[in-house]
Amino acid sequence: MLFAINLITDTRGLSIFNTVKSYFTKNNIPLNNIVACATDGAPSMVGRYRGFVAYLKEEVPNVLCIHCVVHRQHLVGKHLSTSLHSSLTIIIRAINKIKSNAKNDRIFRQLCQDNNEDFITLLLQTEVQWLSKGTSLACFVALYDSVIQFFESNNETNLCQQLKTVKNDAFYLADIFKRFHDVNLQLQGANKTLIGCQSIVSLFIEKLELLCYNLLKREFHQFPELSSIKDDVTPEDTDRFSSHLNKLKLDMEKRFEDILKLKVYDWMKNPFTANIEEADTTCQEELLEIRYDEEIKKMPVLYSNMWKMIFSLLIPFPTSYLVESGFSAINHIMTKERNRLNISERGDLRLCLTKIEPDIQYLVSQHQPQGSH
Protein backbone atom coordinates (compact mmCIF):
# COMPACT_ATOMS: atom_id res chain seq x y z
CA MET A 1 0.00 0.00 0.00
CA LEU A 2 1.38 3.40 -1.00
CA PHE A 3 -0.90 5.61 1.06
CA ALA A 4 -4.42 6.05 2.43
CA ILE A 5 -5.90 9.51 2.95
CA ASN A 6 -9.37 10.62 4.01
CA LEU A 7 -11.26 12.80 1.54
CA ILE A 8 -12.20 15.86 3.57
CA THR A 9 -15.18 17.19 1.63
CA ASP A 10 -16.60 15.40 -1.41
CA THR A 11 -15.67 12.36 -3.51
CA ARG A 12 -15.70 14.01 -6.92
CA GLY A 13 -13.08 13.12 -9.50
CA LEU A 14 -11.27 16.44 -9.11
CA SER A 15 -11.07 16.06 -5.33
CA ILE A 16 -9.64 12.56 -5.65
CA PHE A 17 -7.12 13.67 -8.26
CA ASN A 18 -5.97 16.69 -6.23
CA THR A 19 -5.49 14.47 -3.18
CA VAL A 20 -3.38 11.99 -5.15
CA LYS A 21 -1.40 14.73 -6.88
CA SER A 22 -0.75 16.48 -3.58
CA TYR A 23 0.68 13.30 -2.07
CA PHE A 24 2.92 12.65 -5.08
CA THR A 25 4.17 16.24 -5.06
CA LYS A 26 4.81 16.21 -1.32
CA ASN A 27 6.91 13.05 -1.62
CA ASN A 28 8.71 14.12 -4.82
CA ILE A 29 7.20 11.30 -6.90
CA PRO A 30 6.63 12.22 -10.57
CA LEU A 31 3.10 11.55 -11.79
CA ASN A 32 4.68 10.10 -14.93
CA ASN A 33 5.68 7.11 -12.81
CA ILE A 34 2.04 6.01 -12.93
CA VAL A 35 1.86 3.33 -15.61
CA ALA A 36 -1.74 2.19 -15.18
CA CYS A 37 -4.86 2.86 -13.15
CA ALA A 38 -7.48 0.24 -12.24
CA THR A 39 -10.93 1.52 -11.28
CA ASP A 40 -14.29 0.06 -10.31
CA GLY A 41 -16.13 1.98 -13.03
CA ALA A 42 -17.67 4.57 -10.68
CA PRO A 43 -18.63 7.87 -12.41
CA SER A 44 -16.28 9.87 -10.18
CA MET A 45 -13.43 7.68 -11.42
CA VAL A 46 -14.15 7.14 -15.12
CA GLY A 47 -16.27 10.18 -15.99
CA ARG A 48 -15.34 11.37 -19.47
CA TYR A 49 -14.77 15.01 -18.50
CA ARG A 50 -14.75 15.22 -14.69
CA GLY A 51 -13.65 11.76 -13.64
CA PHE A 52 -10.36 11.02 -11.90
CA VAL A 53 -9.07 9.23 -15.00
CA ALA A 54 -9.81 12.27 -17.20
CA TYR A 55 -7.73 14.53 -14.95
CA LEU A 56 -4.99 11.93 -14.70
CA LYS A 57 -4.74 11.63 -18.49
CA GLU A 58 -4.22 15.38 -18.74
CA GLU A 59 -1.04 14.94 -16.68
CA VAL A 60 -0.07 11.45 -17.91
CA PRO A 61 -1.48 11.01 -21.44
CA ASN A 62 -0.12 7.48 -21.93
CA VAL A 63 -1.49 6.02 -18.71
CA LEU A 64 -3.35 2.72 -19.17
CA CYS A 65 -6.78 2.76 -17.53
CA ILE A 66 -8.47 -0.54 -16.74
CA HIS A 67 -11.99 -1.22 -15.57
CA CYS A 68 -11.68 -3.90 -12.87
CA VAL A 69 -12.32 -7.28 -14.51
CA VAL A 70 -14.04 -8.58 -11.38
CA HIS A 71 -16.54 -5.71 -11.49
CA ARG A 72 -17.14 -6.34 -15.17
CA GLN A 73 -17.75 -10.03 -14.61
CA HIS A 74 -20.21 -9.15 -11.86
CA LEU A 75 -22.10 -6.85 -14.25
CA VAL A 76 -22.35 -9.67 -16.78
CA GLY A 77 -23.74 -11.97 -14.09
CA LYS A 78 -26.58 -9.53 -13.47
CA HIS A 79 -27.68 -9.87 -17.11
CA LEU A 80 -30.88 -11.94 -16.93
CA SER A 81 -33.85 -12.33 -19.23
CA THR A 82 -37.23 -11.10 -18.03
CA SER A 83 -38.44 -14.59 -17.11
CA LEU A 84 -35.25 -15.55 -15.28
CA HIS A 85 -35.19 -12.25 -13.41
CA SER A 86 -38.80 -12.80 -12.36
CA SER A 87 -37.94 -16.31 -11.18
CA LEU A 88 -34.95 -15.06 -9.21
CA THR A 89 -37.14 -12.42 -7.55
CA ILE A 90 -39.57 -15.10 -6.39
CA ILE A 91 -36.72 -17.21 -5.01
CA ILE A 92 -35.22 -14.28 -3.11
CA ARG A 93 -38.65 -13.39 -1.71
CA ALA A 94 -39.06 -16.95 -0.45
CA ILE A 95 -35.62 -16.92 1.17
CA ASN A 96 -36.30 -13.57 2.81
CA LYS A 97 -39.67 -14.84 4.05
CA ILE A 98 -37.85 -17.49 6.05
CA LYS A 99 -34.69 -15.62 7.04
CA SER A 100 -36.26 -12.29 8.01
CA ASN A 101 -38.42 -13.84 10.72
CA ALA A 102 -36.66 -15.44 13.69
CA LYS A 103 -39.53 -17.84 14.36
CA ASN A 104 -39.69 -18.97 10.73
CA ASP A 105 -35.94 -19.46 10.70
CA ARG A 106 -36.05 -21.67 13.81
CA ILE A 107 -38.94 -23.73 12.47
CA PHE A 108 -37.18 -24.18 9.14
CA ARG A 109 -33.97 -25.28 10.86
CA GLN A 110 -35.88 -27.91 12.79
CA LEU A 111 -37.62 -29.06 9.61
CA CYS A 112 -34.26 -29.49 7.85
CA GLN A 113 -32.94 -31.52 10.78
CA ASP A 114 -36.01 -33.75 10.71
CA ASN A 115 -35.50 -34.27 6.96
CA ASN A 116 -31.80 -35.08 7.46
CA GLU A 117 -30.75 -32.30 5.11
CA ASP A 118 -27.08 -31.50 4.55
CA PHE A 119 -27.82 -27.87 5.44
CA ILE A 120 -30.17 -26.47 8.04
CA THR A 121 -30.38 -22.88 6.91
CA LEU A 122 -30.69 -20.73 3.80
CA LEU A 123 -28.29 -17.94 2.87
CA LEU A 124 -29.37 -14.40 2.17
CA GLN A 125 -28.47 -12.89 -1.19
CA THR A 126 -27.27 -9.30 -1.38
CA GLU A 127 -26.07 -7.20 -4.30
CA VAL A 128 -23.24 -5.80 -2.18
CA GLN A 129 -21.57 -9.19 -1.81
CA TRP A 130 -20.75 -10.34 -5.33
CA LEU A 131 -20.50 -14.04 -4.60
CA SER A 132 -23.59 -14.33 -2.41
CA LYS A 133 -25.98 -15.11 -5.27
CA GLY A 134 -24.24 -18.34 -6.25
CA THR A 135 -24.00 -19.71 -2.72
CA SER A 136 -27.53 -18.58 -1.88
CA LEU A 137 -29.02 -20.40 -4.87
CA ALA A 138 -26.91 -23.50 -4.21
CA CYS A 139 -28.33 -23.77 -0.70
CA PHE A 140 -31.84 -23.07 -1.96
CA VAL A 141 -31.89 -25.89 -4.51
CA ALA A 142 -30.28 -28.26 -1.99
CA LEU A 143 -33.13 -27.52 0.43
CA TYR A 144 -35.83 -27.11 -2.22
CA ASP A 145 -38.08 -29.91 -0.96
CA SER A 146 -37.87 -28.64 2.61
CA VAL A 147 -38.67 -25.11 1.45
CA ILE A 148 -41.80 -26.34 -0.34
CA GLN A 149 -42.80 -28.38 2.69
CA PHE A 150 -42.31 -25.37 4.95
CA PHE A 151 -44.56 -23.08 2.92
CA GLU A 152 -47.20 -25.79 2.50
CA SER A 153 -47.35 -26.29 6.26
CA ASN A 154 -47.70 -22.52 6.74
CA ASN A 155 -50.53 -22.21 4.21
CA GLU A 156 -48.44 -20.00 1.91
CA THR A 157 -50.25 -21.43 -1.10
CA ASN A 158 -49.52 -18.63 -3.54
CA LEU A 159 -45.77 -18.45 -2.89
CA CYS A 160 -45.52 -22.23 -2.79
CA GLN A 161 -47.15 -22.51 -6.20
CA GLN A 162 -44.85 -19.85 -7.62
CA LEU A 163 -41.80 -21.74 -6.36
CA LYS A 164 -43.02 -24.91 -8.02
CA THR A 165 -43.49 -22.99 -11.27
CA VAL A 166 -39.94 -21.59 -11.25
CA LYS A 167 -38.27 -24.81 -10.09
CA ASN A 168 -36.48 -25.44 -13.39
CA ASP A 169 -35.26 -21.85 -13.52
CA ALA A 170 -33.97 -22.10 -9.95
CA PHE A 171 -31.91 -25.21 -10.68
CA TYR A 172 -30.53 -23.71 -13.90
CA LEU A 173 -29.59 -20.45 -12.18
CA ALA A 174 -27.87 -22.38 -9.40
CA ASP A 175 -25.66 -24.07 -12.00
CA ILE A 176 -24.81 -20.97 -13.99
CA PHE A 177 -24.14 -18.78 -10.95
CA LYS A 178 -21.92 -21.51 -9.54
CA ARG A 179 -19.78 -21.10 -12.66
CA PHE A 180 -19.75 -17.32 -12.27
CA HIS A 181 -18.78 -17.84 -8.65
CA ASP A 182 -15.80 -19.99 -9.65
CA VAL A 183 -14.62 -17.56 -12.34
CA ASN A 184 -14.96 -14.66 -9.92
CA LEU A 185 -12.65 -16.42 -7.47
CA GLN A 186 -10.15 -17.15 -10.24
CA LEU A 187 -10.00 -13.46 -11.17
CA GLN A 188 -9.29 -12.43 -7.60
CA GLY A 189 -5.82 -12.33 -6.12
CA ALA A 190 -2.97 -9.94 -5.42
CA ASN A 191 -0.70 -11.31 -8.15
CA LYS A 192 -3.09 -11.40 -11.10
CA THR A 193 -1.94 -9.95 -14.43
CA LEU A 194 -3.70 -8.93 -17.61
CA ILE A 195 -2.26 -12.02 -19.30
CA GLY A 196 -3.74 -14.34 -16.69
CA CYS A 197 -7.10 -12.57 -16.70
CA GLN A 198 -7.28 -12.74 -20.49
CA SER A 199 -6.82 -16.51 -20.33
CA ILE A 200 -9.52 -16.90 -17.67
CA VAL A 201 -12.02 -14.71 -19.53
CA SER A 202 -11.34 -16.34 -22.91
CA LEU A 203 -11.80 -19.79 -21.41
CA PHE A 204 -15.08 -18.83 -19.78
CA ILE A 205 -16.45 -17.42 -23.04
CA GLU A 206 -15.55 -20.66 -24.82
CA LYS A 207 -17.26 -22.63 -22.07
CA LEU A 208 -20.44 -20.57 -22.40
CA GLU A 209 -20.57 -21.40 -26.10
CA LEU A 210 -20.05 -25.08 -25.34
CA LEU A 211 -22.72 -25.07 -22.63
CA CYS A 212 -25.19 -23.44 -25.00
CA TYR A 213 -24.48 -26.03 -27.69
CA ASN A 214 -24.86 -29.00 -25.34
CA LEU A 215 -27.97 -27.62 -23.69
CA LEU A 216 -29.74 -27.43 -27.04
CA LYS A 217 -28.99 -31.14 -27.44
CA ARG A 218 -30.42 -31.76 -23.94
CA GLU A 219 -27.02 -32.77 -22.64
CA PHE A 220 -27.16 -31.89 -18.94
CA HIS A 221 -23.87 -33.36 -17.79
CA GLN A 222 -22.37 -29.88 -17.32
CA PHE A 223 -25.42 -28.75 -15.31
CA PRO A 224 -25.36 -30.91 -12.14
CA GLU A 225 -28.42 -29.35 -10.49
CA LEU A 226 -30.48 -29.19 -13.67
CA SER A 227 -29.47 -32.75 -14.50
CA SER A 228 -31.13 -33.97 -11.30
CA ILE A 229 -34.53 -32.84 -12.66
CA LYS A 230 -33.85 -33.30 -16.38
CA ASP A 231 -37.11 -35.21 -16.88
CA ASP A 232 -39.02 -32.08 -15.88
CA VAL A 233 -37.10 -29.78 -18.23
CA THR A 234 -39.17 -28.91 -21.30
CA PRO A 235 -37.89 -27.92 -24.76
CA GLU A 236 -39.12 -24.40 -24.03
CA ASP A 237 -36.90 -24.33 -20.96
CA THR A 238 -33.81 -25.42 -22.88
CA ASP A 239 -34.50 -22.76 -25.51
CA ARG A 240 -34.75 -20.06 -22.85
CA PHE A 241 -31.64 -21.25 -21.04
CA SER A 242 -29.56 -21.54 -24.22
CA SER A 243 -30.71 -18.07 -25.28
CA HIS A 244 -29.57 -16.75 -21.91
CA LEU A 245 -26.18 -18.43 -22.27
CA ASN A 246 -25.75 -16.93 -25.72
CA LYS A 247 -26.56 -13.45 -24.40
CA LEU A 248 -24.07 -13.94 -21.59
CA LYS A 249 -21.41 -14.86 -24.12
CA LEU A 250 -22.11 -11.77 -26.22
CA ASP A 251 -22.13 -9.56 -23.14
CA MET A 252 -18.81 -11.01 -21.98
CA GLU A 253 -17.26 -10.36 -25.39
CA LYS A 254 -18.53 -6.77 -25.35
CA ARG A 255 -17.50 -5.88 -21.80
CA PHE A 256 -14.09 -7.56 -22.08
CA GLU A 257 -13.34 -6.40 -25.60
CA ASP A 258 -10.21 -4.50 -24.57
CA ILE A 259 -8.86 -7.45 -22.58
CA LEU A 260 -9.55 -9.95 -25.35
CA LYS A 261 -7.83 -7.75 -27.95
CA LEU A 262 -4.57 -7.57 -26.03
CA LYS A 263 -1.72 -9.01 -28.06
CA VAL A 264 -0.21 -11.71 -25.89
CA TYR A 265 2.46 -13.76 -27.63
CA ASP A 266 3.48 -17.26 -26.62
CA TRP A 267 6.91 -16.08 -25.49
CA MET A 268 5.25 -13.71 -23.01
CA LYS A 269 3.59 -16.66 -21.31
CA ASN A 270 6.59 -18.97 -21.39
CA PRO A 271 9.83 -17.61 -22.89
CA PHE A 272 11.61 -20.91 -22.30
CA THR A 273 9.52 -23.06 -24.65
CA ALA A 274 8.11 -20.55 -27.15
CA ASN A 275 9.18 -20.64 -30.79
CA ILE A 276 11.83 -17.93 -31.08
CA GLU A 277 11.35 -17.56 -34.83
CA GLU A 278 7.75 -16.39 -34.30
CA ALA A 279 8.78 -13.64 -31.87
CA ASP A 280 9.49 -10.04 -32.82
CA THR A 281 12.95 -9.68 -34.33
CA THR A 282 13.92 -7.12 -31.69
CA CYS A 283 13.40 -9.75 -28.99
CA GLN A 284 14.71 -12.91 -30.62
CA GLU A 285 18.28 -12.64 -29.36
CA GLU A 286 17.13 -11.74 -25.87
CA LEU A 287 14.74 -14.70 -25.86
CA LEU A 288 17.62 -16.98 -26.72
CA GLU A 289 19.81 -15.45 -24.03
CA ILE A 290 17.16 -15.64 -21.33
CA ARG A 291 16.96 -19.41 -21.67
CA TYR A 292 20.52 -19.68 -20.43
CA ASP A 293 20.37 -16.88 -17.87
CA GLU A 294 20.13 -17.79 -14.20
CA GLU A 295 19.55 -14.18 -13.09
CA ILE A 296 16.09 -13.59 -14.47
CA LYS A 297 15.40 -10.97 -11.79
CA LYS A 298 17.52 -8.51 -13.79
CA MET A 299 15.22 -8.74 -16.80
CA PRO A 300 14.32 -4.99 -17.03
CA VAL A 301 18.04 -4.17 -17.28
CA LEU A 302 19.46 -7.03 -19.32
CA TYR A 303 16.50 -7.60 -21.64
CA SER A 304 15.15 -4.11 -22.23
CA ASN A 305 13.48 -4.85 -25.58
CA MET A 306 11.48 -7.73 -24.14
CA TRP A 307 10.62 -5.70 -21.08
CA LYS A 308 9.29 -2.80 -23.18
CA MET A 309 6.83 -5.15 -24.86
CA ILE A 310 5.68 -7.04 -21.80
CA PHE A 311 5.76 -4.61 -18.87
CA SER A 312 2.39 -3.07 -19.80
CA LEU A 313 0.84 -6.53 -19.41
CA LEU A 314 2.58 -7.45 -16.16
CA ILE A 315 2.68 -4.21 -14.16
CA PRO A 316 -0.97 -2.98 -14.27
CA PHE A 317 -3.45 -4.29 -11.74
CA PRO A 318 -6.33 -5.88 -13.69
CA THR A 319 -8.63 -5.75 -10.66
CA SER A 320 -9.31 -3.59 -7.63
CA TYR A 321 -8.78 -6.65 -5.43
CA LEU A 322 -6.14 -4.98 -3.24
CA VAL A 323 -8.40 -1.99 -2.65
CA GLU A 324 -11.31 -4.25 -1.71
CA SER A 325 -8.96 -6.07 0.66
CA GLY A 326 -8.19 -2.70 2.22
CA PHE A 327 -11.90 -2.00 2.69
CA SER A 328 -12.31 -5.36 4.39
CA ALA A 329 -9.40 -4.55 6.69
CA ILE A 330 -10.98 -1.19 7.55
CA ASN A 331 -14.25 -2.91 8.47
CA HIS A 332 -12.26 -5.22 10.71
CA ILE A 333 -10.32 -2.41 12.38
CA MET A 334 -13.00 0.27 12.64
CA THR A 335 -15.37 -1.43 15.04
CA LYS A 336 -18.05 0.40 16.96
CA GLU A 337 -15.70 0.75 19.91
CA ARG A 338 -12.80 2.01 17.76
CA ASN A 339 -14.62 4.24 15.31
CA ARG A 340 -12.49 7.30 16.15
CA LEU A 341 -9.19 5.76 15.13
CA ASN A 342 -7.36 7.75 12.47
CA ILE A 343 -6.04 4.73 10.63
CA SER A 344 -4.75 6.75 7.68
CA GLU A 345 -2.14 8.42 9.91
CA ARG A 346 -1.54 5.90 12.68
CA GLY A 347 -0.42 3.12 10.36
CA ASP A 348 -2.99 0.56 11.54
CA LEU A 349 -4.17 -0.11 8.00
CA ARG A 350 -0.63 -0.47 6.64
CA LEU A 351 0.24 -2.90 9.43
CA CYS A 352 -2.89 -4.94 8.72
CA LEU A 353 -2.22 -5.17 4.97
CA THR A 354 1.54 -5.71 4.97
CA LYS A 355 2.94 -9.12 4.08
CA ILE A 356 6.16 -8.48 6.03
CA GLU A 357 6.51 -10.83 8.99
CA PRO A 358 7.90 -9.07 12.07
CA ASP A 359 10.85 -10.64 13.87
CA ILE A 360 9.18 -10.97 17.26
CA GLN A 361 12.18 -12.58 18.93
CA TYR A 362 14.46 -9.73 17.89
CA LEU A 363 11.97 -7.07 18.97
CA VAL A 364 11.57 -8.73 22.36
CA SER A 365 15.32 -9.03 22.82
CA GLN A 366 15.71 -5.28 22.23
CA HIS A 367 13.08 -4.39 24.78
CA GLN A 368 13.92 -3.87 28.43
CA PRO A 369 10.86 -4.92 30.44
CA GLN A 370 11.80 -2.94 33.53
CA GLY A 371 14.35 -0.19 33.79
CA SER A 372 17.01 -0.30 36.49
CA HIS A 373 16.35 1.66 39.67
UniProtKB/TrEMBL annotation:
Please state what the protein is called: SCAN domain-containing protein 3
